Amino acid sequence: MNKTIITFTQIMGLNRILLNEGLGYKVHLQDACGGQSFTIGPLDDNTNEEKFEEAKQVVIQYFKNIQIELEFLTKEAFIVI
Fold first, then answer.
1. To the nearest 5 percent, what fractions of the chain are helix, strand and coil?
2. pTM to 2 decimals?
3. What sign does the CA torsion over 15, 16, 20, 24 have?
4. Could you say which DSSP state residue 46 is in?
């Protein structure tokens, strides 16, 4: 079974899309020996539930477009499956 690895370049591209959309959120990559995990977090203290949900949909669609499926562990945290 091959493990999908998300590159820093992919995360930077995704964050550029989120920034250009003006959503106020970005994806954070945590990369450790056990694998990668990700969180969607605000750029500043001004969180907005509607903008968060829009950002989450952008993230889901971004990975879907490159044929990668996500599993959300919490509202903000996800892994690649």
1. 35, 30, 35
2. 0.92
3. positive
4. -
Arithmetic mean of pLDDT, 44-55? 92
Kindly list the distances between the CA atom of residue 37 and the CA atoms of 45, 50, 75, 79, in Å, as whole numbers in the listed order: 22, 23, 13, 5
**Alpha-carbon distance 39 to 78, whole Å?**
6
| Per-residue pLDDT at 34 exceeds 80 | no
State both tokens at 22.
């003006």
Query: Considering only CA atoms, which of 7, 12, 9 is closest in space to residue 31?
Result: 7
Q: Locate tokens 């995704």: which residue?
A: 14
**Rounded to the nearest 5°, which phi and psi values hold at 79?**
-130, 165
Can you read off the two tokens belonging to residue 17?
């899309």
In this predicted model, which residue has the larger pLDDT, 40 or 35?
Answer: 40
